Amino acid sequence: MAELTKTIDGKPHSADDFAYVGDAKDISTWHLPIDKEHIDSALKMFGHEKNVPADAKVATAHKIVAEAKKQGLDEDRIKNFEEKYCKSVEHGEAPRGWIEIFRAGDYRPQGKINITRQDLERVVRNYDPDFHEAPVCVGHPKTDAPAFGWIERLALDGDTLLAKEKQVDPAFDEARKTGRYKKRSAAFYLDADGKVGGLRHVGWLGAQPPEVKGLKNLNFDDAGREFVELAFGEEETVGAENDKSIGEQISAWFAEHVPGFGKGASKEFSEADVKRIATEAITAATAPLQTKISELETSAKAQTAKFAERETAIATGETKARVVEAINKLKGEGKWVPAFDRAGLPLVFEELAKATTTIEFGEADQDGKKPQVAPFQMLVEFMEGLKKIVPNATFYEGGKVSGGSKSSGDPLTDAAHARMKENPKLNFGEALDEVVAEKPELTMAGGMSAGSV
Length: 453
Hints:
Blueprint: E1 6-8, E2 11-13, E3 18-23, E4 26-33, H1 39-45, H2 57-70, H3 75-85, E5 99-103, E6 105-106, E7 114-115, H4 117-126, E8 135-138, E9 144-147, E10 149-157, E11 160-166, H5 170-177, E12 183-190, E13 196-205, E14 216-219, E15 227-233, H6 246-257, H7 271-332, H8 338-342, H9 345-354, E16 359-360, E17 372-373, H10 375-384, H11 411-422, H12 428-438
Parallel strand pairs: 8-13
Antiparallel strand pairs: 1-2, 3-4, 5-11, 6-7, 8-10, 9-14, 10-11, 12-13, 12-15, 16-17
Helix pairs in contact: 1-2, 2-3, 7-9, 9-10, 11-12
């Protein structure tokens, strides 16, 4: 039986070439190749690997370290990896689960950018805590802010970006568990081409930060790099107004639209005031919906026009095809002459082919109903019912001869007419064919010229 292998970058690899093998008979459970071409990547990507179970992390890390030493990789780098991943979690912070921090999508309607799954894959590949360890913050700090935790590694689940945190402040973590922070927002660095290239920080939104002492202050030194902030969470829209309760928003609206509201004075509203306030409130509430409806109506009209234009083009093409087919058939049957083209008969065919009405034509059947015939079909059937107009003939070409004022000046023509006198049953074409068969020299240069009949 052939050895089971898994193809990586076009080359087959056995189970021994992988740091983690869940099931030796199932290659889908083989992860983190550690052969010569991939050991460097295994060191870098181990922190982002979410397919390795928690209870197998340490053993998998040790296997990567052994192979890295065997292949002579940088000792300092291996040492840093060992300190970070080869120690039992019993002696460190309790393991944390993955947190969803962002989802791929088109954020251009929010004035942002479109971010695809491929963009997020690049963010995961680029994340290196040794180069830039993304902090867990409250809000979106531009320069100085406290860090409530740090992002240890990233992973991707479908179109969703996952993060695993470490060193999270207990008070902040408790505030999240009680629902004070229901939204989070990821900030990404932008590459030169305007695409996301790396994670800057993860900001939690929705409440004031807890009073926590001793937090590490972070100072963003972006060196002029551009970044973009995008919201993700239970509420998609981010803003101070949306963080208010419904009651607070209603109070704010009255304070804005009703003079003196909220200043302690008793309020008396006339019927006109109530109607005005209700009308303004309804108008303000339905304005976004009306705008959206108008946009959809405009889009629907444009789409309908495109469909109508397309259907017209298709119908026109089908009409022309029917006309060409009918005319070619009549030509093949000898029932169409060039004079019809010059007279514009093809245009008549085309206009009749566009008509969708029918005409009652012919005698009624047993039920008293007359057959319904389209004008175009009626004309085609009429033309097909005609006798053959163009006879079969042979084209003979020869030269004219001089002399013979009483003759046609064409010996072949004269001979054909003479043959018709001899046999009155012959038409000119048939007489011409018999003469040519007997005297073919009359068709040569110096003989005669016979045109088509």
